[in-house]
Amino acid sequence: MSQLSRDLAAGMDRRRVLGGLALGLGGVLAGCGSRAGAQGGATACVATPTEIKGPFPADGSNGGARPINVLNLGGVARRDIRTGFAGMEGRAEGVPLELELELVGSGCGTLPGHAIYLWQNDAAGEYSLYSLTETNYLRGLQPAGADGRVRFTSIVPGCYGGRYPHCHFEVFESPEAAIGGAAPLLVSQLAFPAAECSAIYRDDARYGDSLRNLERLPIGRDFVFGDSDAAGQQRQTVKLSGDPAQGYRGMARVTLA
């Protein structure tokens, strides 16, 4: 089964559940960070919408007799996620990315002490522990500092067939909550800007078919980001500064309802 097929299957299951909830709680959801609320709100800190977790979270929620869970491994709390950890080797090659996520509440107040677990595919569009069973790179947990910011050293992800360039994340009340198996406060995804991704993919052989895949699927056709308006898509897109030769700095705001 392809990466896209797995993503779509996970998305359909989640959307069926959300659809049922919406029938009974439509008014509540609209006021608590659903897409309708996000697109219609005029406040400075619009709640980041919930998105599908996808089939490759490695957070213990996969099901089966032996679910994959990196959150209970020593070393998962780390800033640099480019290498394997907890006895696993491997290093993700690609254009360097220093990613900074500002974590705030609906009133725009920072949320120090909360934590983000982030995972993404590599330059070739593969996810560790699934298609790449020998490594667990590009996964890590970080607490927000006193400024409410979480920082990861990573790479710009590739674009695999059927999905726009993105990364996944979960927000927890604390690192201890994440490691202890508590439910996340938010599950969502962030997009990466097409112009910068195109510049990277065009000349870097490590990214394989990423440019072709991106040209076939703009953000408006992606099944995760495509159902939001332009303003909503912009809020969910990492702002990049830099260049393919030296690497990029990325910034985005994550807002809890």
3D structure, described in words:
This protein is of the alpha+beta class and 257 residues long. The protein has one domain (3-255): Protocatechuate 3,4-Dioxygenase, subunit A. The chain has helices at residues 3-30, 35-40, 175-179, 194-203, 210-216, 230-235; strands spanning 96-104, 115-119, 139-143, 149-155, 166-172, 186-191, 239-243, 247-255. The chain has a four-stranded mixed β-sheet, covered by helices on one side. Strands 3-2-5-6 form a four-stranded antiparallel β-sheet.
**Number of helical runs?**
6
User: Low-confidence spans: pLDDT under 50, at least 5 residues?
Assistant: 12-43
Q: Please identify the top-level CATH class.
A: Mainly Beta
Return the CATH topology: Protocatechuate 3,4-Dioxygenase, subunit A
Architecture (CATH level 2) name = Sandwich
**What coarse outline follows from CA principal-axis ratios?**
globular
**Rg to the nearest angstrom?**
17 Å
Give me the strand/helix succession: HHEEEEEHEHHHEE
Features of the shown structure:
8 strands; 4-stranded antiparallel beta sheet; alpha+beta; Protocatechuate 3,4-Dioxygenase, subunit A; 257 residues
Give a short summary of the structure.
This protein is of the alpha+beta class and about 260 residues long. The protein has six helices and eight strands. Helix 4 (about 195-205) runs antiparallel to helix 5 (about 210-215).
Give me the secondary-structure topology.
Layout: H1 3-30, H2 35-40, E1 96-104, E2 115-119, E3 139-143, E4 149-155, E5 166-172, H3 175-179, E6 186-191, H4 194-203, H5 210-216, H6 230-235, E7 239-243, E8 247-255
Parallel strand pairs: 1-8
Antiparallel strand pairs: 1-4, 2-3, 2-5, 5-6, 7-8
